[in-house]
Specification:
Number of helices: 2
Oligomer: single chain
Strand content: 5-15%
Distance between the termini: 67 Å
Shape: rod-shaped
Number of domains: 1
Helix content: 40-55%
Number of strands: 3
Length: about 110
């Protein structure tokens, strides 16, 4: 009886497919991570923008919360974490000191 041998071509094709799969998965994960980072950056910068606007217009002083921004109509819709889809807690504290907005995210 003769043994069935695997041809060099089959091995080459298998190796190329495995490498393509590894590169494809790694690329997909990197793109997904970048997308999530950009979504979170957008949430943070928009929240900082509205908080700073509230402080500069004199409607907010010292330490405020997201609820204060809702009450003063700076934020119309409920803030939602774009990655986890969880609602941002209205008790999240925002401070404005030395022209810098600092948000203490509770989620």
């Amino acid at each position: 009886m003769e043994k069935k041998r695997i041809s060099n071509f089959s091995i080459l094709v298998f190796v190329i497919l495995v490498l393509a799969l590894v590169v494809g998965v790694k690329t997909f994960l990197n793109i997904t991570k970048q997308h999530e980072d950009r979504l979170l950056y957008s949430l943070h910068t928009n929240t900082e923008f509205y908080a700073k606007r509230c402080y500069l217009e004199g409607k907010c002083e010292n330490e405020v919360t997201i609820q204060t921004l809702y009450d003063n109509d700076y934020i119309k819709k409920e803030l939602v974490n774009p990655v986890t889809k969880e609602v941002i807690k209205p008790e999240t504290k925002i401070t404005y000191k030395d022209e810098v907005i600092k948000i203490e995210w509770l989620n």
